[in-house]
Structures are given as structure tokens and as C-alpha cells.
Amino acid sequence: MSTDRASRIPVDRWRNLGIIAHVDAGKTTLTERLLYKTGTIHRTGEVHDGATTTDHMELERERGITIGAAAVRANWTPEGGQAHRLTLIDTPGHIDFAIEVERSLRVLDGAVTVFSGVAGVQPQSETVWHQARRHGVPLMAFVNKMDRPGADFDAVVAQMREKLGANPWVVARPVIEGEHMTGLVDLVAGRTWRYDDAGTPESHAWDETERATYAGARAELVAAVADRDEALADLWLNDQPIDAATLTAALRRGTLAGLGSPVLPGSAFRNVGIEPLLDAFVAYLPSPLDRPAVVAHTEDGDTMLAPDAEAPLAALVFKVVNQAHGPLAFVRLYAGRLNVGDAVWRSGTDRVQRVGRLAVVRAEDTEAVESAEAGDIVAIAGWKDVATGETLADAHRHVRLETIQAQPAVLSWRLSPERSADLLKLGNGLARLAQEDPSFRVGTDPDTGETLVWGMGELHLEVMVERLRREWGVQVRTGSPRVAYQETPASPSGAVEGKLAKQTGGSGQFARVVLSVTPTGGDGNTFEDRTTGGVIPKAFQGAVEKGAHSALLEGPRGYPVVGASVVVLDGQAHAVDSNEAAFHRAAQMAVKAALEATGTVLLEPVMRVSVSAPGTAVGDVLGDLQRRGGQIVNLVDRQERTEIDADVPLAQLDGYSTALRSLSQGRASATVAFHAYRPVVQEPSRRSA
């Protein structure tokens, strides 16, 4: 195997891929080995030493976890093949940083899911797998840590079927000698790989004995792929020989279509299985040209954008990072070209802005480039007000791509600076953090005027507060946590009128809006205007919609309203006294009156708590979860340990980590992920949570 530093590699040999997994499955260690084997770095760092390339933030190195998705670029040439360009994004495994996975999957072409050979398919593994599937991203799997005692490759493959509903295609099997994985057999190419203690590979084609030994495993793979591929099925059913090229082509077709996922074993820590994995990236994952066209919105309706470098520009800002020398906006180009000096239209500001500097990023390092084209992932330096989810388009052809959706924040802390002189620095720091992370938001308590920060969990907020201290030099005090409650209409309201009539001579204000509010059971709100005959002039219809949405920001109980369908039924305008402000206010009045009439049901965030506990502590752990109002949804006995899944109201989880350690003498572990909003059992006092 070798690397190729050719400056120009055609787009059909690009691979933009993410590395996704449960926390501590070995993603960052794997990324480090991939960079080393491709020659991008010349020595490997370890997570436990705080010396890896992609965990470049000081906090990441101290905690030994990935917080922000990091992009790196490398080249790889399979033996006897052509040079390929890889853009790798190492994503966080902790659920509190799920937005990093979400926005990475939004722009990547393929992904490899890393599973621990010992722990198997863990809760966050399921989450990221289904995130990738939702985005239609072709998936591979790498079963890591096969050098560990208790690792079981076949068990992990079985769990992929059972827990993920996946169709795993085992393209390589581990060679285990004693307690260690010393190599693997490539069932596609008919080769055996061996590794010495330093992780140096040697491979050879199967001899007759090996061919006979692995014939059954290869036949099983061919049958599984033929079940989803007609061309291969014809050969297989007619007993035709199936060579490596034919099987590789069928595997690639199936992977790109989402019909199956190639699976390989390895040990990233011991450098075992890295070269076959790199070859598999090239063989099975898509180039930008293999991905379907994306939907873009224009004033004339929706259009489909193919990955064409000669088309007008369409690019998506998917991440913003504030570094010491200024902000970097990470951009995925879907169509067209982007050059230094170009003036491009930005959807976030609805204005044209010039590109001052473009860069290719390798974690915290940047390399200036002059241009990029469809399929590229680059960074724009120097745009201070840019936001995640913005579209960049040709100045003469404005298009909008689908933005990036963040999960709703579920927990908040009160913040205040220890020194009043730091108030301005606190505000600037919070603004920058909110710009970087759409799942982190800043607000003000309407009753006390205190600053509130909202996030995905305790770890998320802890990291943000620590970044304020380190990066902005602000020492802050944190107050008691608050839970993000929501409201939903209890029943349909029927027709309700909102009327504003201030006509006392001169220019007045007049607007009448009749609407209904109906519960939908969903997690968003919808708006529909069913008026006819121009009873609400077209110029004021937008104001009615904005007024209705603003009224839903705070319901009768003081929390945001979700799951509401607002339908405008009738209205009335005055030739002189009607204006946008009047219709905005009338719509607000009507929605608030409708919600007061129907009443609302209070909803609370319920978390999926996944606990791994020793058998001796299971009774105490279950009892504690039930005392907290938890519902046990799954319980699996795995000999020495028991896996427990429970749905628990977030409001009841205060101090849970400490309690779990106490109940299990520190031997149990848990992950907590947002699951759903459900009606509360015990209602809090207004805004007291």
C-alpha cells in the first residue's frame, strides 16, 4: 500500500466519510491510525495521552472524549489501484453532542460505524446508525477492539441484525491466535492479512488449504449479496465463477443503494486491519458523483441540484468554529465552484459577500486553497456573522438548501459572572458559543432577568461553561437546572376571533382574524390560511402567520406551545386603518384566546437511560429508576452484567450519576439521551423548574 500526493484527483475518486459510534468505541484512535497509514501524520498519538490529531481542543484532551467533529484530509492508493482523496470527519460519541453528528451526516457521502467487539451495539450506536439512515448515507461497519478479552465478532454482527435491523455483509473475518487478533481474511479478494507486534502488515493470496477453509464463509457472503443484486444472482444461480472484481462491484451497488453494509474486523489500537478498511472505503463508499441530487428551494419552486461543477453555486454552511485567528465556516459544495474573491449570496443575511480566504482544514491546522468545486468540503475564513445552516449561492441565482435541524434543548442553567466587569465578555462568549452550536441557546429569565443557557444535558452545559472560563477568561457562577417543558392544546378550539379596533380619528389600527387551533400530536406547529375572497389582503397574510407563531412561543402556562395546527378561517380589513402590525396583533390575540379556551397539556422531556450494571446491583438500580418515575423498557442479562433501558422524566434525574455510583460501588455506567416529550405526571409550579 502507498500514498499519493498528486494535487489533482478526479471527483469520482473522492470519498467524504464520517466515523460515527457510541462513546469509547474507538473512533478517534481509528482516525489517528487512518491518518498514520495514509502518511498524513508521521507518528500516532493516543487518546489517553491527550495527543490525537482530531481531539485538538484542550478540553477534549483532558476529558478523553470528542466534543466537536473534526475534519481531516488524506490520500490513499490501494495496491495496484489509483490515488483516492479521503475527507474524514471524526464525530463525538456522547449524546450531548449529537448536533455534531447530525450536521456531519447532513453533508457527508458515506459513513463507517465503529462498534466495540466487546460491548457490541450500544445505545448511541443505534442513535447514530438511524441518524445516518435518515439522511440516506451509505454505511459500512468496523468491529473494533478485537484484541480485547471477550471480543466476539459474530455476536456483534448478530446484534447489528437484531438491534439495528441492518443487513451486514461480512467481507472479512478475524484471525484470532491466543487472545489476540493477529490478522484477517479478506473473503472478497481471497487474501490473508497478517500483522506483527508493531502493526506492520503482510498479505498473501490464499493457498489451496486456505481456499478450502474459507470457501463456506465466502459462499455465504456471495449468497447474501446475490439476494439483493440481480446481476450477481444470475451468476450465482448458474454456478458461474464469481471473481473479486464482480463481487466488489455487487457489494458497491448494494452499499450505495442502502441494501446492505460491509463489515470488517480490526484493532485500531494495535494497527490491525487498517489497510483493508482503507481499501474498503475506496471500494464500497460513494464519491460525490454517486450521491443523488439534492433539493433546493427557489422563488419559482423546488429544483434538483446534481453535483455539477459547471452549474451555478450552491453550498451549505454546516459548522462554524471560532479559532484564535478568527471564525471558520465549514462549507460543503453541492454544485458549482467557489473561488477566493468571489461574491456570493448568503441566505442568512440575504446579501452578497466576498470570499476573502478559503482553506482545507486538518483538525486545528489550515492550508490555504484558491478554489473548490462541487463535492468539496472547505472552510471560509473571516466571516464573523455566519451561522450553521446558511446556503451560499450564485449572486444572480438564489437557491436555498434544506437547513440543519437541531434537537430541542432540554436542560438549562442560570449563569452570572463572578465579577460584574466580566458581563460584556460573558455576553460575547455566549454569542460565539451559540453561533458555533445550534443545540446551545441563550435566553433571559423573564421573572428575574438572569441569563439562562440551554443545552442537551449536563455534560454539554459543563463543557460550554468550561469553554467560557478558558477561551474568554470569564469566571461564572451556575444556578439550579431548569427543565424545558412544553405545552400542547388539550382539544380543538373551534372558531375564535381576535379583533383590534382603534379608530379615534386620524390613522387608526383595525384588523379582525378568525382562526382555530387544533392539537396534532406532533412536535412542531403548522399554519394554514383558508380564507377566500381577499378578506385578509395578501399584503397582511404574512403578518398573520408571524403573529400566530409568536403567540405559540409562550402558552397559558408560560412554556412554548407545540403540536398545534392553526387554521385561519375568516378576517376583515379596513381600507385606511389596517396594517401589518394590526394583523400581527389580532392573530396573536386570537391564538392566545383559543389556547385559553381549550387549555393546554403540559409536556416534559423524557430521557432514555441505558444502564450497564453488575448483577449484584441490578435490584437497587431498578428500584431507584422506578422511584424516579421511570418505565423499564428493556432488560437483558449478559452473564456478568445486565443492560437496562428505562424512560425517565428529566426532572427526576437530578443527581442520578452520583446515585448510580453509590448504588453500584462505582461499577455501573449509564448514558442518558433525549427520547420524547410526554405529558407530565406531577406538574411543576409555573417557571419554577
Secondary structure blueprint with pairings:
Elements: E1 14-21, H1 27-37, H2 58-63, E2 70-76, E3 84-90, H3 98-107, E4 110-116, H4 123-134, E5 139-144, H5 153-164, E6 168-170, E7 172-177, E8 180-186, E9 191-195, E10 201-205, H6 208-226, H7 230-237, H8 244-256, E11 261-265, H9 274-284, E12 294-298, E13 301-305, E14 314-323, E15 326-335, E16 337-339, E17 343-346, E18 351-354, E19 357-362, E20 365-369, E21 371-373, E22 377-381, E23 391-394, E24 400-401, E25 411-417, H10 423-436, E26 441-444, E27 451-455, H11 458-471, E28 476-478, E29 482-483, E30 486-489, E31 496-502, E32 509-519, E33 526-529, H12 538-551, E34 564-572, H13 580-598, E35 600-614, H14 618-627, E36 631-638, E37 641-649, H15 656-663, E38 669-679
Parallel strand pairs: 1-3, 1-4, 4-5, 5-11, 6-11, 33-34
Antiparallel strand pairs: 2-3, 7-8, 8-9, 9-10, 12-13, 12-24, 14-15, 14-23, 15-22, 16-21, 17-18, 17-23, 19-20, 19-22, 25-27, 25-28, 25-29, 26-27, 30-35, 31-32, 32-34, 35-37, 35-38, 36-37
Helix pairs in contact: 6-7, 12-13
Brief overview:
With 689 residues, this protein is α+β, with helices and mostly antiparallel strands.
